[in-house]
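Risk register update: the risk of archive-format incompatibility is retired. Evidence:
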Amino acid sequence: MSAGTRPRTPGTTAHTRLPWWALVLPAVAFVGLLVLLASPASADTGSTAVGEGTVSRVVEFVRHALQS
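Archived output:
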């Protein structure tokens, strides 16, 4: 037996904790892909209206999606 390990007793389970980024990064990637799928026509047009940036459109989309 190596140092620092304990023998397993039958019926016990291992408890592990995920780091914060293990939950946040997949959620951010999912929202990003959802935004691209929801509005593919605006994703390939290079022009946006003055005062309306990509970040503000994403925030508005997420806000609208969470309200319904």
